[in-house]
């Protein structure tokens, strides 16, 4: 049965402040387009457990939302795209990727410090092997500590003095209106973000064509091209959301030989050793229409440069948040 018509669209979301805020932007956009919509909170194991993702399973933040789609409790699911498993599930369609937030990582440090000002031995909390490996590779002598919990709990560890700083996704802080806490937004030359960081995936059942068409109105083509390339890179590496892999793709304007402006997709990726001993980086530029193949080509070059061996050097860690 289609979810459209006179029915109110039920949007499934996790119950955290960040998740409900993210889903709320989708609800508001649908309402603005003339569709009734409401949020439905779905509890997930990822929200209830303090264990690492390796212990409770990749996709732990998204599986219950997908189950709610299948059993009809919700019509739409809103995910942080980077939490989705890289393997496609034909039961579902990502009908929209709304305009993406700034994908960079952000530092929240005591006393307004930036990364280069943190003294040797400073305790820095991070949830991801990707961040851990790249922070260690900078050679700043930081004491990297594991970090779990929602945004407020993580931020509280700096406020309490338990940690000197935490590294988080800038997009999450933007969505809850706390950009003022950021002491430094980390440029990709310092730290490549997680593939699809800052992007939302608006998902529904593949067979509901009417709903797919409605949700597609929320889709941003540039965001979709960038995320498609980044996720293809991750898939080609056969790496999951907890791997020490970073990627960023951007649609940029270029000039042809006749001075005409056209769009290109720039893709950069990296793989790192968790101990920070080595980071491999490479990139490519091509057509946004060829986003998936472009991402895969960057991944293949990373593999040729030894990415597989680096990614096998891994410690326990958590997914990017």
TrEMBL record:
Q: What is its EC number?
A: 2.5.1.61
Keywords, in A-Z order: Porphyrin biosynthesis, Transferase
Q: Which residues form the Porphobilinogen deaminase C-terminal domain?
A: 226-303
Q: Name one Pfam family in it.
A: Porphobil_deam
Q: How is the cofactor bound?
A: Binds 1 dipyrromethane group covalently.
Q: Does the keyword Transferase apply?
A: yes
Looking at its record, which EC class is this enzyme? transferase
The UniProt record lists the Porphobilinogen deaminase N-terminal domain at 9-211
Q: Which reaction does it catalyse?
A: 4 porphobilinogen + H2O = hydroxymethylbilane + 4 NH4(+)
NCBIfam families in the record, alphabetically? hemC
Instruction: Please state which protein family the record places this protein in.
Output: Belongs to the HMBS family.
What job does this protein perform? Answer: Tetrapolymerization of the monopyrrole PBG into the hydroxymethylbilane pre-uroporphyrinogen in several discrete steps.
Q: Beyond the main fields, what else does the record say?
A: The porphobilinogen subunits are added to the dipyrromethane group.
Name of the protein: Porphobilinogen deaminase
Organism whose genome encodes this protein: Rhodococcus tibetensis
């Amino acid at each position: 049965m289609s979810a459209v018509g006179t029915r109110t669209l039920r949007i499934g979301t996790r119950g955290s402040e960040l998740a409900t805020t993210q889903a709320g932007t989708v609800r508001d956009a649908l309402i603005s387009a003339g569709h009734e919509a409401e949020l439905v909170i779905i509890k997930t194991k990822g929200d209830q457990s303090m264990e690492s993702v390796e212990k409770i399973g990749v996709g732990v933040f998204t599986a219950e939302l997908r189950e709610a789609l299948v059993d009809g409790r919700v019509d739409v699911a809103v995910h942080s795209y980077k939490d989705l498993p890289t393997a496609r599930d034909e039961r579902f369609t990502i009908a929209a990727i709304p305009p993406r937030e700034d994908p960079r990582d952000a530092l929240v440090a005591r006393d307004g410090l930036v990364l280069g000002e943190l003294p040797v031995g400073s305790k820095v909390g991070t949830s991801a092997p990707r961040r851990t490996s790249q922070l260690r590779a900078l050679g700043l002598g930081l004491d990297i500590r594991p970090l779990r919990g929602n945004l407020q709990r993580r931020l509280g560890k700096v406020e309490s003095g338990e940690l000197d700083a935490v590294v988080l996704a800038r997009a999450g802080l933007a969505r809850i209106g706390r950009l003022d806490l950021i002491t430094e937004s980390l440029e990709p030359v310092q730290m490549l973000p997680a593939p699809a960081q800052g992007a939302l995936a608006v998902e529904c059942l593949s067979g509901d064509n009417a709903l797919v068409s409605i949700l597609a109105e929320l889709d941003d083509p540039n965001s979709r091209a960038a995320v498609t390339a980044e996720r293809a890179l991750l898939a080609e590496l056969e790496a999951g959301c907890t791997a020490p892999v970073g990627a960023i793709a951007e649609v940029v304007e270029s000039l042809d030989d006749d001075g005409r402006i056209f769009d290109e997709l720039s893709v950069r990726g990296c793989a790192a050793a968790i101990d920070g001993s080595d980071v491999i980086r490479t990139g490519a530029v091509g057509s946004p229409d060829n986003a998936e193949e472009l991402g895969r080509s960057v991944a293949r070059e990373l593999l040729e440069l030894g990415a597989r061996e680096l990614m096998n050097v891994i410690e326990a860690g958590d997914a990017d948040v």
